[in-house]
Amino acid sequence: MGRIVLQKVSKKFGEIEVIPPLDLTIEDGEFAVFVGPSGCGKSTLLRLIAGLEDNTSGDIIIDGNTVTQVPPSKRGLAMVFQSYALYPHMTVRKNIGFPLRMEKMDQAEIDAKVNTAATSLNLTDYLDRKPGQLSGGQRQRVAIGRAIVREPLAFLFDEPLSNLDAALRVGMRMEILELHNKLKTTMIYVTHDQVEAMTMADKIVVLQAGVIEQVGSPLELYRAPRNLFVAGFIGSPK
Ligand code: ADP
Ligand code: MG
Prior knowledge:
By secondary structure, the protein is of the alpha/beta class. The chain is built from 8 helices and 10 strands. The strands form 2 sheets. It has a 6-stranded mixed sheet with strand order 6-7-8-3-9-10, with helices on both faces. 39% of the residues are buried. GO terms for molecular function: ABC-type maltose transporter activity; ATP binding; ATP hydrolysis activity. Keywords: ATP-binding, Nucleotide-binding, Transport.
């Protein structure tokens, strides 16, 4: 299903190679976190997987298919951004159903899928509100709901909680993990926050200047950081 393989994938912007060729596999159902300092290439890597940027070289393989030439909307992935990108004039119900209306799905089917998504996100009481009448956390849940209704092979999150205050972030982390437990869908989560990475990930991918410094479970990285950068970044005692 949602197995994502990168083979010698690189990205240049003009003459500048922001991601030298790298290999990476995200297993089906895994919760993977890309972590690293600002500017290290996390968003670029996610956008390459999503197809929002073209890779300069290499292959991206999703669910066994090479998707290099496949447009974003046909890759079976759903991206959740830090800016909520909700339509202010539409109700929550309309916002969540929006991608399905674009696909011309019939209304009864849309309603059923919106209701299922709203239930799994505890949004059923808010379906008739507009985004302006919601808290930051609720708005973020609506954005996630809009991803869920498409039943993607994988969810790609780019720093989805960075607009929320600290207390709300903790709660939203739990909600995203709960969603992962329910859906068992592959998730890739980008953050510059070490704590978020260490508490959420099955697999952490540590990036520095476009290079993967280490891939492993939080415990593996904590116990055996490969170098001083990883040790320093994740706060290992070494
Ligand atoms: P992160 O998400 O880890 O903060 P980004 O992936 O946004 O990092 O950026 C990685 C590097 O690529 C940075 O040096 C950034 O300036 C550069 N970059 C990102 N997008 C573009 C673009 N569209 N054109 C030129 N350079 C870019
Ligand atoms: Mg970024």
